[in-house]
Predict the 3D structure of the following.
Amino acid sequence: MWNEESDWIGSFDSQLARLAECRMCSRDRGERPDATGMDLEVLEVAEEGSYGRVFRCLDIHTGALVTMKQITMVRLSQGVPAPIIREVSLLKELHHANIVKLLRVGLTENRYVNLVFEHLDYDLHHFIVNRGYPKDALTVKSFMYQILSAVAYCHSLKVLHRDLKPSNVLIDHSKRLIKLADFRLAGEFADDLLYTEKLGTSWYRAPEILCDSRQYSTQIDLWSVGCIFAEMVIGQPLVQAINCRDELEGIFKLLGTPTEETWPGITKLMPNLHIYYPKFDALGLETFVTDLEPSGLNLLSMMLCLDPSRRISAEAALKHAYFIDVNYVSLLLL
Amino acid sequence: MEFDLENPFENLHSDAVSYLFLIESDHTPSQNHSQTLKARDLDISVRRELISLISQLSCALDPVLSYLAINYLDRFLANQGILQPKPWVLRLIAVSCISLAVKMMRTEYPFTDVQALLNQSDGGIIFETQTIQRMEALILGALQWRMRSITPFSFVAFFIALMGLKDLPMGQVLKNRASEIIFKSQREIRLWGFKPSIIAASALLCASHELFPFQYPSFLKAISDSSYVNKESVEQCYKVIQDIAIEEEYSSALNGVSSSDTPINVLDHHFLSSESQKTNGITVANTIAVSSPLRDLKRRKITGCGCGGNNPTIHNSRIQFSHAKESEK
């Protein structure tokens, strides 16, 4: 709040002093996480990536657990990097119950930007691997509805997630509440592609991206959601269930190698398609995704549609018959 | 994703429009701060000086950049006033606001060119990158990193559709004129506390009254009927904006008629210079007059004296002009 007595210059000077102190701390502590001035107690390193690191922290004031993503800044000759300003400013405008909340942003001198997010107990990957996938059909449906709600909201603002996968789907276990995390909006971080490749998340990548198309849009997220949907039902990544050389071959074995009829534009996108991939007949989703009710299988097939222009949108998916019996009250209580 | 003042979130659905109205107050200096600021002449003069600096430093850039930079400035001032307006601090703030605006707009200018431009100065002050970065960090913090500003431009298309002019040439003409008015009115301290949507509605009504007076009543009704708009706020805002538009006509007339030696030129306003017809989808007419350096010097001199009011001679001249206009009707 604006205060008549506030001394802006004094404030600037004190911030300068804190920044200088921060720098000294950083140098002394070597690899210690640099959270000076953020009023956080670092508990552990949760994740290492080439773009930066993720820490589990305790908020000193509230006692709440938070997640701090520390991003290394590059190109500092131009002040605070533009990609970071653009990305953070968009994250600040995402307000949705199913999107993880960015609580605070801090800058350390010449090195890091610290993003402080609310913390949730688990991610869906952990849930599937360690707790057995959510075999309860109602839980799967509830999770799917929440994921699609968040995706539809983002797409209405023309924001893509670009890296949807189970580990980016956070779960508040006691409430069965889903929150999407780790938006990479403009893909401007220098190591973005390297980071993605390293973690082998191509299992959730849409075929148009695997074909190296540079013209993609919101549909890529729907493909990823479809993969997550299947994984919740069968307990492992869908592509992993198929014996295949690479992800694209797995997709083609599952759905049939595309033709101009099934995917208009494919011969221009991949002129050498039939040199690299045999002409597979579709094995069909129902071969691998058993134990899913017919309307769920129908929705899944509309998400895992090879032709991006015919793939269902998040908004339309929410109105699909699969969700017709979703009890909104139970969704709130779950 | 590209940041565009007209579509800060590139909303595609009507729900997103509701969203813009819902959160626009978060991107606007609050009413309380506005009233507090009005009571402080020092801050008002500081704001005026900062706006002048920003316009001067960014005159070679897209006028939308200046607009965004001044928006950041206003929100920064609302968050923390400036009690010690040292010249180098003011310049650093101006440079940092422009730098942040450039980064958000993802301009086509190579950043080094922008940096060199910002560092040119008659005072010879050149800031180290680290200094600018610290100021940028301070401003980012004060604005809580919400740099995707919601401005009047975010609402123009919505109101034009409401007036039934979407995709019509008439709508484009109105939009162009309203955009001109929005650019000019940004300097006006009396608009400080109005929400961007109210300013957009008022600018469009002012433009329609000016260009399409016979359709004006139906446009007024279309906007007044909107549940998003507070009618009283629009009326108040409209009056201020109409004053600004009239002053603009007056200044243009003076520029055309009088020589540079005439004392009444102290009324000249510094207009934004626009070198391109199309700026991010907002067309700015090239008819905007650019004041001469001499007039700028005179204006600053008057401001420095602390004498902000009109003297009787100028006042009489203005009344004369208004009277003549009325008699023509």
Residues 1-32, 185-200 of chain A have pLDDT under 50 and may be disordered. The longest helix of chain A spans residues 8-29.
